[in-house]
Amino acid sequence: MIVAVTAQEGRIDSPIDERFGRAPFFMIANSDTMEVYAFDNSEGVNAGNGAGTGAAQLMAEQKVEVLYTGKVGPKASEALDKAGIKVVEGISGTVEEVLSAALQNVVMERAAASQQELEIPPSKPVSDGAIRVAIPSDSEDGMASTRSGHFGKCNYYTLVDIAGSEVVGVQSMKNGGHSVGGCDVPVRLLKGWDVNKVVVAGIGGRPLAGFLREGIQVYSGLGDTVNETVSAYTQGQLGPIRQDQVCGGGA
């Protein structure tokens, strides 16, 4: 989804501009790529008349689907309506605040729309006093399984319940598939299996944000097998993934 916000400056931390046609900038965001860019509206600011309808045409050219602004005049409103662009008026704050809420709504709506396509099989309950660590795996061989380098496209997740430094439960769960629902699928799968932490070889920014939003900690892993990874974890050799370890891909 393409979202536009009227802004006083061409920065993500810019205050909202309540005008539509004569806003100095439009901050435009793509919810699929999370790309945000500034569009200079100097032409609209300096227009003698027709700034609103001109800005509406610009929104259509940029394929904007939802516009956030302070107020839209009647002619511009009509043009936006004809272009199929939804308008949300009366906003305030910063561009970052508005985009954060808007893109979060997009994620939640897509998750709800695809929920029926994803069936999460039940897992065994978490052992008493334990936390559940999920490790992407190539097979259903439990602790002996080879650790997968792809958390979203792995064949299985090995769920390991750890109390203190002791392993008190192990089970293998088949991955439901990365294609349906995209990067949200692993997040929902592991959340549904009561996972507290996931150990990955690499991860993209979008799924990392999804895990953190659900309260699931993401660790950078070591070891060729699940057993080696768990051993490294219980010995305190693993830590939360750093921002410089985040890759460009989704999984």
Automatic annotation (TrEMBL):
PANTHER family reported for this sequence: DINITROGENASE IRON-MOLYBDENUM COFACTOR PROTEIN-RELATED (PTHR42983), IRON-MOLYBDENUM PROTEIN (PTHR42983:SF1)
InterPro entries, sorted: Di-Nase_FeMo-co_biosynth, DiNase_FeMo-co_biosyn_sf
Organism this protein belongs to: Malonomonas rubra DSM 5091
Protein's UniProt name: Predicted Fe-Mo cluster-binding protein, NifX family
All copies of domain Dinitrogenase iron-molybdenum cofactor biosynthesis, residue ranges: 13-102, 145-234
